[in-house]
What does this fold into?
Amino acid sequence: MNKVVKNVEEALVGIEDGMTLMLGGFGLCGIPENSIAQLVKLGVKELTCISNNAGVDDFGLGLLLHGRQIKKMISSYVGENAEFERQMLSGELIVDLIPQGSLAERCRAGGAGIPAFFTPAGYGTEVAEGKEVREFNGKPHILEMALTADFAIVKAWKGDTEGNLIFKATARNFNPMMAMAGKITIAEVEELVPAGELNPNDIHTPGIFVQRIFKGEKFEKRIEQRTVRIKN
Amino acid sequence: MNKVVKNVEEALVGIEDGMTLMLGGFGLCGIPENSIAQLVKLGVKELTCISNNAGVDDFGLGLLLHGRQIKKMISSYVGENAEFERQMLSGELIVDLIPQGSLAERCRAGGAGIPAFFTPAGYGTEVAEGKEVREFNGKPHILEMALTADFAIVKAWKGDTEGNLIFKATARNFNPMMAMAGKITIAEVEELVPAGELNPNDIHTPGIFVQRIFKGEKFEKRIEQRTVRIKN
Amino acid sequence: MALDKIGIAKRIAQELRDGWYVNLGIGIPTLVANYIPEGIEVEFQSENGVLGMGPFPFEGEEDADLINAGKQTITVLKGAAFFDSAMSFSMIRGQHVQLTVLGAMEVSQNGDIANWKIPGKMVKGMGGAMDLVASAENIIVAMMHSNREGESKILKKCTLPLTGVGCVKKIVTELAVLEIRDNKFYLIERAPGVSVEEIVSKTEGDLVVPDFVPEMVL
Amino acid sequence: MALDKIGIAKRIAQELRDGWYVNLGIGIPTLVANYIPEGIEVEFQSENGVLGMGPFPFEGEEDADLINAGKQTITVLKGAAFFDSAMSFSMIRGQHVQLTVLGAMEVSQNGDIANWKIPGKMVKGMGGAMDLVASAENIIVAMMHSNREGESKILKKCTLPLTGVGCVKKIVTELAVLEIRDNKFYLIERAPGVSVEEIVSKTEGDLVVPDFVPEMVL
It folds into this structure.
């Protein structure tokens, strides 16, 4: 089952104005850089983007914000992006802020056929407004709904022609759950290998969740906060 | 954080009559054999056992059934065990049969702090009796509750002193979710290695879920259905 | 002549489409893997945690840690993946599996299926069947038209405890291919040499029979 | 004298116990990792998907794929594990993490905490904070007693949008260690050289002051 597409152009065919996209990554770590660049090029607009962060001003989803391609962001943390804050406070951008754990679980639920689940996160806060509250074991929980997307775009370290994916270190983050929740899931990978080269025990995202896979042309992998020790 | 205990005797300290245990495995594949043998030896009774299967007559949980140590089984499939069927049909054994996917998800939920979730599995059947029904996207779902246990006993291929676990092939099955859902989780492993020898990218169950780990003395690994091709 | 198990499996195999992920139940469904049509690629998912199941191992190469949902020793093909049971049923519940083939004791004309329990007699448990039938958009049931006593298992209403409601759309038996629509069975094909009359007589549920009923081509 | 950030971190580090898994928030909480008491072992969880976080990398050894929840480059210790965000919050929500240390803009005497939003001014988002405070049994808040305008942040009632309700049990500020019980703040320790009067004057919420208030030993 060969899911390989030639390049990012071919990978993103079918993405249209007004669609809902999930994009993996935490901060700038593990984001599908090549696909984001292509989304800028395509100029698709009125997007709803589900992604933990909104990138920074000049990288990641910040690039799409800059071009006003995003109508609505569903995220947990957007603190590193001045343009984002400006668009949000001015009302140009609709923002749905979700606790990080609920965001991860709602994506997983969307992929796993669980339409809704109870979580304690957000009880008694703005996040709980309009949501059902129920006590379990004496503790109040709120009902959260699954999230899905027209396209999920993820970034993996290694992938094979069957769509199996392996992520590296903390670049895994939201990618596996989003891969599950896309009607069509696109994976851009650093290394693309023939089926059989990845150990079946080590696969993080089984290929069944991935419809298209391609080797990204280049990965800049920007670091947001370079913190180091000095060698004595 | 050294979680290593000397042997199975030390590993199972604290398991008492009337407790709820989760035991990993699918059929006889990936079951904690050494711990089951020790449970027989300890003679603890009135147990509630959560395990996908009930073993066969003379291996796996069948050994505990034989000694009437189990009061209640929570399983999805018990078809390979005559003694089980006898005890159940005679009413000596309480049996709660649960769809396999719901069983897996309920264990995960128990470990993940999700007290309840909706699933379509079992709607309109005996399994749905007494459970809340709600429609999502035009399809009826039932509300299922999380499962937890006093002790979860799992079997892994490799483990390290921090409790990190790697399972082999389909011996993974229920083990990772049960490891999450035990108040105390005990892992018996085939190979026990120092921290640092397992690749952090390849861990299936992070050590945070495991309180005690030991190298099993011997693994018989019985095969339930030996099916082979003949070489020409 | 009525089909044997292999015949049923062969007919079901014709329903496979290129690129599909398929879950095969225990028994006749398992045999379907042996008759994949030329030129298409499908991948088999087993709910105990494997994608990319291959044939049985050669003698002496069995691995106790590598089995299918029927607890049979198996092998895997290149590009396989292992995963836990929660992930496995995420695939199933999340409708990532394009086709589910499973056996049944009874099917009714509204698409209900019963295959896990005979009260007071036999209780094996539902295993993954309830998750599969509640989730799959595309279910084919492989079954015998009648039980050992000659009573039809293709019914107006199931008599046994249900596994799922209104979920079955297609049935392949030793006699016929049936589809379920509008609360009726539709006769689509008959086994080679089997008469429409025989099928009608062995079907308790309401059966719509077109003027011409083609024979299966196996 | 009031503590600096390092002093607050050092005092919080005294609360660590051998064998604990600990989640440290951004800012002062991150510093706690530098002052683990002798003879105990704790392991740090970062909600973006790592257990067994180590110190910052040496210059030139940074890996863009290895960061903490504050997006800082990190290293891992032997025995570390990586996992996805759903697994990470399973650890948090499932109460497998024994201690959570995080910052706050306001805390109220019933244990409410606000740290994610100033309406109309600043909206960074809650990140993982709502999951952490709703789940953790053991939360320590590291914060300044007052804001830049000199207004107390230790309040009868929070004025900002809440992050969680009734969840904070202990607070360490530059002036004091406070505990929350029965809808009141209890003064447990004061920073070296800081007077009880100063703490009382800077605490807007109801504060219970015992006859003797020991100084912190750092």
